[in-house]
Amino acid sequence: MISPQNTEDGRVSAGARGPASDRAPAGAAVYLDHAATTPMRPEAIAAMTEELGQAGNPSSLHHLGRRARRVVEESREQIAEAYGARPSEVVFTSGGTEADNLAVKGLYWARRAASPQRRTVLIAAAEHHAVLDSAAWLASHEDAKVNWLPVDSEGIVCPDVLRAAIEPDPGAIALISVMWANNEVGTVQPVAELAEVAREYEIPFHSDAVQAAGQLPVSLAGSGATALTVTGHKIGGPVGAGALLLARGADPVPVLHGGGQERDVRSGTLDTPAIRGFATAVEVSVMRRDEEAKRLAALRDELIAQVIAAVPDAVLNGPPPGPARLPGNAHFSFPGCEGDALLLLLDAKGIACSTGSACTAGVAQPSHVLLAMGADEARARGSLRFSFGHDSVPQDTDAVGAVIREVVERARRATAR
Amino acid sequence: MRVLAAMSGGVDSAVAAARAAEAGHEVTGVHLALSANPRSYRTGARGCCTLEDARDARRAADVIGIPFYVWDMASRFHEDVVQDFVDEYARGHTPNPCLRCNEKIKFSAVLDRALALGFDAVCTGHYARLGESGPAATLRRAADPAKDQSYVLAVLTGDQLGRAMFPLGGTGKDEVRREAARRGLLVAEKPDSHDVCFIADGDTRRFLRGKLGDAPGEIVDEDGTPLGRHDGSYGFTVGQRRGLRIGRPAPDGRPRYVLDIEPVTRTVTVGPAESLDVTVIEADRPVWTGCPPPAVPVRADVQLRAHGEAHPATVTPPPAAAGRGPLTITLDAPARGVAPGQAAVLYDGDLVLGSATIMTAHRLAAAPA
Q: Which residues of B are catalytic?
């Protein structure tokens, strides 16, 4: 078994066992891409690796099955407790994308089956592709009508905008989906207010809370949402385990059919070790959440200060630091640069970050999030996301501050003339 | 040196990158995405720039142990290669898109970006040798004549060659495949790419029809006698025999070939094989790398298409000399199937002296001025 290597300060050193191409060229790796995925927390690794040695399918009736089932149900209770849900409201999935698909497609099918005129889906324009493309698929294959909810220049969906989109024909709306916090620019939506508007019209409200879960007080009951997407690997858990928190009474049509293991809404053998690792990460991250949010915000603010000092014309995208911005997110546009050139140059200096947008064959497309916020294509192309997480330290911020001016100057020279 | 290795996903560029890394250079692999929608171009192992090829390139970089990125060159490729290809056919020429891609993409757009980002050279899997390095760089044929690709690189200037690295120039293809297998590169057995990478099904005529629509015209013999009609002059190449669809056979029953394509009236002239013989060629946009631009006529071996033979010739610079204006290439013996738009590459033995783009070809020597 390969065990991750813990450095003295408890950080899991990325790529310590990879070939040269995966290793940071010099010095310690600076990992500022936690919004993509976060190194697993030591507690989650310990819980999961212990579980990997166990046998038993949680659906089996014998003693080994019962043991595995106990682990799953204890995990479910931990997650429910952490996220303001009842245990029966936790539907395990393979991760955020599956949970988003289940929420958007499943709720659409269920609502349409109950009342055929409900074919309109209200989706915020800056959603993650798991929501965006699920809705687009419903439009192209299931006769849905998708109305994109506009966001303002900071990426926020105003409750009045949602109300205005509902009012012309509330009976035609199948569901609403607005993410809790944006994965690219870190915008935090007024989820409780939006859910309240949806509740007035008795329309199911889904929110992808994948990015918010480790840093903000995410709660199913507290938000009033019908369904929330959460996942393990953004909070120090394993990739491949997530959940749809699904309020009682909401019964989406399944996307995956089979044994009906999860409330008859989701089928597939439950991944006991990953679920245990996920639950451990949830418990630890929620326990430390408030102090961690403060710590990440301080790192983020210092990074913003250093970047703007080094590159005065850099633009911070998304809301200013404060309650409307995810504590661990800093997202910039560097005028005259291309994001992928910046990424290559920083990577060569051992700094891992992201252009923050979806890729096709590794080709960065201009971010639909920035375009929805009114940015032009050049600004969208020249963007870079730094995201902090549980193992981030002040040296990470300083490492960026030390090289960003030189990197931006070089990237400017490389911009296609 | 900091070297950017262009990695297509094929065996040649993978081994070239591996050799550059083994030689001690700091190598970074880059796959060029040439289509905004990768599925729209050729899929499978037959061509370039598909998602599968991007994956193959990435895996090769992993095995070699070098960083790897994908660069989006789709809009440049579309403008400078695909659109140029269509425009050239529309004007009755026969373009070579691989040559154009080397000239405009790999050793221009990619090289410029690489230099700006701090790289010193661009490495590719082409089979060609470099003579000198630096600003006096020269280009030579590959050691393996069957794989030689100097023809599609001869359009590069000395500056471009000075930043190029062709680690495979001294090696044969079989050896490269064996070396790939030895290095654990999974692309060792991947078939060679052929034809035009951006024409998914290999049907150039249909591709051009989609871009250019119907462009009907007459097919005439050398006396101007109409023999039939065609629905697009871009479907023809000088020297082509098949697909003329002329109902009536020639009076003497011998096969007929395309002799000339006149783009304005879209008239395609056909005739017997011997009418394809040309002796005098005018070629424009000369590039000299193997010798200074000559002021007086020089002797050279001229290659007139990819994988074509070399023809002994006398190359006469324009009166004003200094390398500007068209060259006149007079062949010692007639050559067949010389198509405007192709490159005339001038060799002295293995050494590329220079190249120019064929504009016109004549059967007989022009009258002395």
A: 101, 197
Of A21, A361, A364, the CB nearest to B62: A21
Rg (CA), chain A: 21
Task: List the strands of the sheet with A227-231, edge to edge.
Answer: A90-93, A242-246, A227-231, A205-208, A173-177, A120-124, A145-149
B118 chain-A contacts, CB cut-off 8 A: 345, 410
| CB–CB contact B33 A344 (8 Å) | no
Ramachandran region, residue B337 (left: φ > 0; alpha: ψ -120 to 50; beta: rest): left
Determine, yes or no, domain membership for A52: yes
Lowest mean pLDDT segment, chosen from A376-385, B62-71, B294-303: A376-385
Is the domain of A212 the same as that of A296? no
Which domain range does residue A391 map to? 20-37+289-414
Structurally, chain A folds into a number of domains equal to 2
Least confident of A35-39, B222-226, B306-310: B222-226
Within a 10 A sphere around the Cβ of B178, how many other Cβ atoms? 14
Would you call B207 an interface residue with chain A, using a CB distance cutoff of 8 Å?
A: no
Q: Is B141 helix (H, G, I), strand (E, B) or coil?
A: strand
Task: Report all structural domains of chain B as residue ranges with CATH numbers, in order of start.
Answer: 2-189 (3.40.50.620), 214-274 (2.30.30.280), 277-362 (2.40.30.10)
Do the chains contact at A340 and B112, CB–CB below 8 Å?
no
Q: What is the CATH number of the domain that holds A266?
A: 3.40.640.10
pLDDT of residue A416: 59
Chain B residues touching A344 at Cβ < 8 A: 28, 67, 69, 117
Shortest Cα–Cα distance, B125 to chain A (Å): 20
Instruction: Report the complex ipTM.
Output: 0.83
Task: Say if residue A125 is in the same domain as residue A217.
Answer: yes
A222 to chain B, closest Cα gap in Å: 43
Q: Do the domain assignments include residue A11?
A: no
d(CA B157, CA A283): 63
User: Are A255 and A321 within one domain?
Assistant: no
Same domain, A327 and A365: yes
Q: Is B113 on the interface with A (CB under 8 A)?
A: yes
Residue B270, CA distances (Å) to A270, B226, B229 in order: 73, 10, 12
Nearest residue of B to residue A344 by CA position?
B69
